[in-house]
C-alpha cells in the first residue's frame, strides 16, 4: 500500500514553524505497514494544492493521499476546495466520521471543513493541522483504510 502526505501551511512552507502533523502521519502510516513514497509542504494556495493532489494521484500511483492543514475557517484555508476540484467522486462518510470522532475529544472538531474523495484509484482525505486532531484521525482511519482500498480495487464489500 502506497501513500503520500501533503502538509498545507503557509508558516511551515516558509520555515516559520515546524511541521509536526505531516511527520506524525508518515510515522503512523509506516508503523501500519504503508510505504510513504512522497511527502511535501506547500502554502495555502488552492491551485498548487489541487495540482499536487492530481499529480500524485495520476502519476505517482499512490493508493492514499492524506493532507493535513488548511481545513479551518480562515480565508487562507482552501484545502477542502482544492480537494473537491481534484476528486472524481466524494466520500462524505469519511469526512463526517472524522469530524464525529474528533468531537468526542473536543467540540471544536466540528469546525473542520475537511473533505474526502476518490480520484481514479487514489483515496484522498483531509485531516486538520493540529497534531491532536491528526492522532484522533489516524486512530480512526488506520483500521478502515485496508477495506476501503479493497472496495476501490473491486474486491467486494
Query: Sheet with the most strands?
Result: 6 strands, mixed
CATH topology: Molybdenum Cofactor Biosythetic Enzyme, Chain A
- Quick one: how many beta strands? 6
| Unreliable residue runs | none
Task: Label the overall shape.
Answer: globular
Count of helical stretches: 6
What percentage of amino acids are in beta strands? 15-25%
CATH superfamily: MoaB/Mog-like domain
Radius of gyration computed on alpha carbons: 14 Å
* Gap from first CA to last CA: 18 Å
Strand order of the largest sheet: 2-1-3-6-5-4
Give the tally of structural domains.
1
Under CATH at level 1, the class stands as Alpha Beta
Describe the structure.
The chain is of the alpha/beta class and 157 residues long. It is 46% helix and 20% strand. It has one domain: MoaB/Mog-like domain (Molybdenum Cofactor Biosythetic Enzyme, Chain A). The protein has 6 helices and 6 strands, in the order βααβαβαβαββα. Strands 2-1-3-6-5-4 form a 6-stranded mixed β-sheet, sandwiched between helices. A hairpin with a 2-residue loop joins β5 and β6 (122-127). The longest helix is centred in the last third of the chain and has 22 residues, at 131-152. The two termini are 18 Å apart.
Provide a brief overview of the structure.
The chain has six helices and six strands.
Write a concise keyword list for the protein shown above:
single chain, 157 residues, alpha/beta, Molybdenum Cofactor Biosythetic Enzyme, Chain A, six-stranded mixed sheet, 6 helices, 6 strands
